[in-house]
Amino acid sequence: MAELTINGATSNGVTGVETEVKEKLCRRCKQSYDPSKNITSSCRFHPSFFVCRRHDDQKRYYELGPDDPPYAAKFYDCCGAEDPDALGCTTDFHVSYDDE
């Protein structure tokens, strides 16, 4: 929420009003954001974890050939992205650590 600092305001509340916006930290994407500009596409994140599994456990993400090794693969469980720094696959509002 924006904090208002009022200095010498008149009865109509217009004169001398300063607005100070406190940015918050999003617990999903770890970015700072202005709560007054938080819209449904503000936050891009992965709704699941970055996991490590054997290929045999994840056939829905990979088509394995007969000569593929059965080593562990690392990927996001939600979309299959293999790069831990991959752009999120979902957008939504930012969620602050202060929000419940």
Commentary on this structure:
There is one protein chain. This protein has 100 residues and is mainly β. The protein is 0% helix and 28% strand. Strand 3 and strand 4 (32-33) form a beta hairpin. It is elongated. Residues 1-11 have low confidence and may be disordered. The chain has strands at 3-6, 17-20, 24-25, 32-33, 43-45, 50-54, 72-76, 90-92.
Helix count equals 0
Which strand order spans the largest sheet, edge to edge or round the barrel?
Answer: 1-2
Helical coverage, percent range: under 10%
Would you tell me the structural class of the helices and strands?
Answer: mainly beta
List the helices and strands in order: EEEEEEEE
Indicate the overall shape.
elongated
Gap from first CA to last CA: 15 Å
Number of strands: 8
Overall pLDDT score: 76
Query: Strand fraction band?
Result: 25-35%
Low-confidence stretches: 1-11
The largest β sheet comes out as: 2 strands, antiparallel
Radius of gyration using CA atoms only: 22 Å
